[in-house]
Amino acid sequence: MYATNYHRASSVEEAVGLASEDAKYLAGGQTLIPTMKQRLAAPSDLIDLRHVAAMQGIKVEGDKVRIGAAVTHAEVAASAAVRGVCAALCDLAAHIGDPHVRHMGTIGGSIANNDPAADYPAALLALKADIITNNRRIGADEFFAGMFETALDEGELVTAVELTAPAKAGYAKFRNPASRYALTGVFVARLGDGSVRVAVTGAGSDGVFRQSEMEAALASNFSADALSGISVDPSNLMADLHATAEYRANLVKVMAKRALIAAG
Amino acid sequence: MASVSMTVNGKAVSGQCEDRTLLVQFIRENLNLTGTHVGCDTSQCGACVVHVDGKAVKSCTMLAVQANGSEVLTIEGLASGGELHPVQAAFKAHHGLQCGFCTPGMIMAATDMIKRHGGKLDEKTVRDELDGNICRCTGYHNIVKAILAAAEEMGSTRQAAE
Known about the structure:
The structure holds 2 protein chains of 2 kinds.
Chain A (H helix, E strand, L loop, with lengths): L4 E4 L3 H7 L4 E4 L5 H6 L7 E4 L9 E4 L2 E5 L4 H5 L2 H14 L5 H6 L2 H7 L6 H7 L3 E4 L3 E3 H4 E3 L2 E2 L7 E7 L3 E8 L6 E9 L5 E6 L7 E2 L1 H9 L24 H19 L1
Chain B lengths: L1 E7 L2 E7 L5 H8 L18 E4 L2 E4 L12 E3 L12 H8 L9 H15 L5 H7 L11 H21 L1
Helix pairs in contact in B: 2-5, 3-5
């Protein structure tokens, strides 16, 4: 790891004030620190967010859910309040990485990094969540802008995620057995207004995306049967040493069906 | 350079290190507690697992400065009064190790999972919970046996105490 300067922020304002072109926010660090160890990242300064009180805590009021950006995967997985309104989100959080990673990794860190195989982007896109930053509210459709790309401006800080509990939701992923990342993961949701959203992670060559053909098929029949006639086009899917685009295309359908079964 | 103070295995410690110093380096090189191991360079193997503020974390994936002010428990802090911790004793009794390199991390992961799950551990849960710890000798069978035995013993001790 190259030398860096550590700062511990105690408020959102302090964190944003410390930001600069060569600095990086440090949330749980479960991606950033390994990346720095490999010398693939060399930020001049690290701004630790784990002690910012305003970014902590989960609040569920009726069907409104607010999760602070510094909330860990373990906290979401164990939250009875979140489980009461959207169990799929808890189940997703419970299968990110491994237990030790889940004690450190945060929802804000995950979505700000927008790894094309991360789990949370699929959930937030399918649940039509809003991403709250230090100066605005960004809809998930706009926020996830491509592979490792988001709508965040330079120095802009994710402080929380807000969403409305869905009528039904489910998530299924085919895990890469070594990295625990999604080789393909699909989050299905029927929102309170009856609309259906299907978001796919791990498979798209440009990061998380919505599967509109499945959304149309599920609008009138929200069950695995409704997908039997659909074949997923592999042309915009990722291919690497782990899986071909065609294999991922098949996985999108299989994981969508499993997610629908999980949604009940 | 940063000044770092923390409580390690119940004792207040402090030292100077670079901001980029990993917690595991600080534990091994500044405090000379070499029971915590480094088995990989990629945050995958779990040989470096310690508890920070009561939670199992990979000390190779956290900076020492991030743990400034925290309570840290390493493998050296588990046994008390010359008696092995029940998880350590179970690993010995059930042959839960061969070369022993992964064992400190395995035991710190096991004590964390037993604490979180109480007496409700079953084999599948133990295997799932070991996702972050790699052993290249045992095939995991005896590690799982040891953790289940320790969980049962700790559960019955807890009941007896109540």
